[in-house]
Each structure stands twice: as C-alpha cells, then as structure tokens.
Amino acid sequence: MAVSKKESMLVNEEELEDDSDMGDDVSESELEQESEEESEEEGDVRLAEPAQNATYNRDGLLEKLGDMSWPENAKWVDRLTLDIEQEQPVDVNDDLTRELAFYTQALNGTRMAFEKLLSMGLPFLRPEDYYAEMVKSDSHMEKVKSRLLVEKKNMEEADERRKAREAKKLSKEIQNQKLKERAKQKKESIESVKKWRKQRQQSGFAGGDKGSELDLAFEDGKPFEKSSNKRPGVAPGDRSGGKAKYAGKGKKPKKREIKDSKFGFGGRKGSRKQNVAETTNDLRGFNKEDGFSKNKKRKM
Amino acid sequence: MAKKRKHSESEAAPQKKEEVAPERPKRTLLGWKDKKDDQPKETESTPVFRNKEKVLVTCSRRINYRYRHLMLNVVDLLPHCKKDNKVESKSSKGATLNELVELKSCSSCLFFECRKGKDLYMWMAKSPSGPSVKFLVNAVHTMEELKLTGNHLKGSRPLLTFSSNFDKDPHWKLLKEMITQIFGTPKEHRKSKPYHDHVFVFSIVDDHIWFRNYQISVPHNESDKIARGGLDKMTLIEVGPRFCLNPIKIFAGSFGGPTLYENPFYISPNQIRSMQKKKKAGTFVKKVKAKTRRKMHELENPLEQDEFAEMWKE
C-alpha cells in the first residue's frame, strides 16, 4: 500500500520535473539567444543603419585637405608613403586573415619602397656595424628571448610526452598480441597431443594399460615446475646457503672456517650427514692417497 | 650690511645686462649670419620643401597604465615629438591644448584622453589652423608585450603603407594626409637615423584604421648589399604597438570648430554599456514572468486522475 503510494508520488514528481525541465529549456534557449545577440554587439560595435543626421561636409573636407597638405614640390622621400591595393575585403573577426592582410600590405610596401630607394641611391637597411639606440631596451629583448626559449622548450617537452604516450600505447598492443599468440600456440599444442592420444587409443596401442600411465604433466595446462627446493651444491639444512664453504677471509680464523665448511655451522646436523645423489657422485675425496693411479701413470 | 649689499648688486646686474645686450645676429657654423641673407631665401619662387613637423604628445589625467604605455610607445616611435605633462580633461581642454602647442612651437598634437579609466580617445590635431580628429581607440597592445618580438632603431624613418581604400572618400583622404604628416618622421630630422628598418601599416578594415608596426629583417650577410634574392628573403617581425582607431568626428579647427564629418555608425562605449545593463536587468523579470505563465498553464490544464493509483490499495 505504502509502496504504491510512493510510486505514484514518484511518477507525479517525475512528470513535474519533466515539465519544469521543459520550461527551463525554453528559458535557457531564450537566454542563449540573448547572449548571442550580446556577443555580436560586443564584437561589432556600430549602428545597424547609418544615423540620418550625421554631418558630412564633403567640400569642407576637401578644402581643409587642400589647406593642410604639403606643397607640390614635396618629394616622395619626404613622405615615404605607399599605397597598397587590398586584394579582397578582410573579415575583421578572423584574426589570422586580418593580421595576414596587414603583413602582406607591409611586405609589399617595403618591397616597393626598397626599389624606389635603390633607384635613388639612398641607403635602406642599417649596416651590420651600425649600432645605435633601439626602440626596445636590451633587457627587454632578453626577456623576449627567454620567453621564446621557454616556449620552444615547452613545445619540445609536450612533443616528447606525446611520443612516449604513443609508444606506450603501441607497446601495449604488441604485448597483448604476443600474449594472445602464446595462448593460441599452447592451446594448439595441447589439442594436437590430445588428438594424437585419441588416435593411438583408436588404433589399439599395445601397451594400452601403460598409456594411462603416460600422463603428461602439461595436459593440465600446468607448466613444468622444479620438483624440489633443493639447491645444488648445498647440503640440506645448511642455513648459510652453501656460503659457508666459500666464506671470504673475514674475521674468522682459517681453521674455524675450514671446520665450519666441513662440519657445518648451524642448521640440522642429521640431514647434512646423509648421503645425497650429489655426494655419492662426488668422487673428489675418493682414493686420494691411493698409490695405484700413480703407479699406473708411472707405468704409462 | 653684507646682505643688503648683495641684494643691491643682484638687482643692478640684470639692469646692466639689459642695457648692454644688443640684438646679436644668429651664430652659424661659418660665422655670424646676416639677417639680410636670410630673407631672400624665404621669398624665393621655388623654395625647397622642408618638413618641420613637430608633434606634441600628451595625455589626460587619470589615464590608465596601459594607455599611458601606449602613449610612451608612440613617443618612442616619433623622434620629432615633444612629450608634455598631463592635461586636465575638461571642456576647456581645447584652449589649453592649443596654447600648449603654441608654447612648445609644435605644429600638430596627439592627445590621449582617457575617460572612466577604460575608454581611450585619441585626438589628432593640426595646429593652429588645421583640422582635428577624434578617434575612439580599441584593441590596444603595447610594445612591452612579449609576443611582439621585433626591435628596430630608435628614430629611423618609418615607411608608411596605406591600404588603397584610403583614397575612396574625402574624409579618409584627409585622415591619410594627417597621418602622413604626424606619423612620418621629417627627412633629415636631427634625431632621425639615415636608414629604414621599420614599416607602419595603416589599413582600413570595417571602417576602422588599424595600426601595426613591423621590423624589416633581411638575412644578415646580405644586409650590406641587398640583391634580388635578399628581397625575396625579407621578412617582417612585429614590433608593436597595435591599436585600432575608430574615427568619431572631424573638426575644421584645431580642437574645435565646425564639424566636417561625423561617423554615422558610431555608438559611444557608454551607450553600449548601458544597453548591456538593461538587458541584464531584464533577465530576472523574464524569469518571474515565465514562472507565473507556467503556473497558469498548470492550473488551466490539471492532470488527469490516475486510474491505477488506487489499484494496490486494499
């Protein structure tokens, strides 16, 4: 009963929320429109239509221009002005194209000016050995330079990071592929073994009973393991890890060392004195004082 | 006693000087210059044109630091200018400025007027008779900005490049002439240097005059004798400052006189700000309205009774 009530409440609430969401959406979209309008106005601050009552005294302007302009005999060298054709109208809000337009204007202008000055035989650029005060001070230029260097360094670092990231990604992929391949190989080999066994059973192998004994360890998918934790060259129970034999010339007297290596130092004594396969195979200490081998050698 | 004597002496001395000092002829490198020689030269039929432009550069009080730096940059760029103290920006500033220009024996004036600590207006005036223009300055970047990496000689004469649309209308023509006179460094000015290593760009885009300043750089080994190849390799590096001038009005006199031109598209920044404020004020009212509308809508169209609501009730 209570649950049903709650559910119904929930449903109602959801509906309400939906409705209110709708309302919000509408208002938001309106706001967005407004903000767009604002931004447009901020970007382009001007009246949509020219004001009607704006004065424009064409004759007055031209007259003033005539009054103020330099006399006719002013040469180009006095003015140093250049008019450059603008190829196409420039979009103001596109920073890049605008700056490019200014740059090309300046470049064309300098080329024209250079040709003119060259034909007049006037100096143009400053010679290398002409040192004079510059507009920006040396300390300021130092700052500019250091900033450029920092920017370059940052860019290089970012590049390196990006490369490392990519390499990591690639290596991960390769690793995954390798693992997959390995797994596949393993599966294949196991299957082939199974197949072989089946075939053998079907063909009626003579030692059918023995076949069951021939359980291969890797059939279970377990890798081969070291059967025991016996270390070669170390007696069982030697806690020094066989190092006692080769102990460096430390503080211990030599005799003690020898005795330690012979009888062991620490650890269980009992198992150390037992024979193991290694000790049995070790014939180093056997028949040392035997004259027989010597005699044999002599005879030879 | 001693004091008194000193006083009398000091008073006497200037009097003596006044008595003694006759009007001296001007001294030149080669000796004394006679006045008689000077006069016929001026009245010659075709005197050689010599540009003697001097520009007074000042700003208003309470200018903000960015615009002050812009002014200082302009001072650096114009070796033929004189910088003066700040001027109170009152309604009578025109008269004081005219006086100042005359006092400093300048022929034109650049006045940076800052209002409300955020809007920069630039007055460009020819004095005493010439026209004057009032601009609104936008998009200001000073030379100190580190992204502008160029540098050039202080006082080398700039090349002035104008976009071709300056010749379209008479007011643009007038502005072009004013700009060439004010921003061009006079030839053989004593502070100018004999080489050209920077370019000014004046370009009209969107009815605004955009200003840029570039350094001309040519690979070093070729700078002594530039061949054609050197010309191709020429690159420009921006030095700054940057600004954008929006002409508001052109007056016939210097800092006053009848209006010759009025920008029909101009809206003052104050108006823009007030409009924005009004818009912002409207948002809350709209919200309240939307809420009431929603409520009315809900009342008019009530939800249907859910027939399954009572289903699980026992």
Structural account:
The complex is a heterodimer of chains A (about 300) and B (about 325). Chain A is mainly alpha-helical and about 300 residues long. Among the domains of chain A are: about 60-125, no CATH class; about 135-200. Chain A is built from 10 helices and 1 strand, in the order αααβααααααα. Chain A has helices at about 1-45, 60-70, 75-80, 95-120, 140-205, 210-215, 255-265, 270-275, 275-280, 290-300, and one strand at about 80-85. Chain A starts with a helix and ends with a helix. In chain A, about 5% of the residues are buried. Residues about 1-45 and about 210-215 of chain A have low confidence and may be disordered. The model of chain B is unreliable at about 10-20 and about 35-45 (pLDDT under 50). In chain B, a hairpin with a 2-residue loop joins strand 1 (about 25-30) and strand 2 (about 30). In chain B, about 35% of the residues lie in helices and about 25% in strands. Chain B contains 7 helices and 13 strands. Chain B is α+β, with helices and mostly antiparallel strands. In chain B, the strands form 2 sheets. In chain B, strands 3, 4, 5, 6, 7, 8, 9, 10, 11, 12 and 13 form an 11-stranded mixed sheet that branches. In chain B, strands 1-2 form a two-stranded antiparallel sheet. The termini of chain B are far apart. Chain B has a domain at about 55-270: Rossmann fold. The interface between A and B is large, with 87 and 98 residues.
Provide tags for this entry.
heterodimer; A: 300 residues; mainly alpha; 10 helices; 61% helix; 1% strand; elongated; disordered N terminus; B: 314 residues; alpha+beta; Rossmann fold; 11-stranded mixed β-sheet; two-stranded antiparallel sheet
In short:
The complex is a heterodimer of chains A (300) and B (314). By secondary structure, chain A is mainly alpha-helical. Helices cover 61% and strands 1% of the residues of chain A.
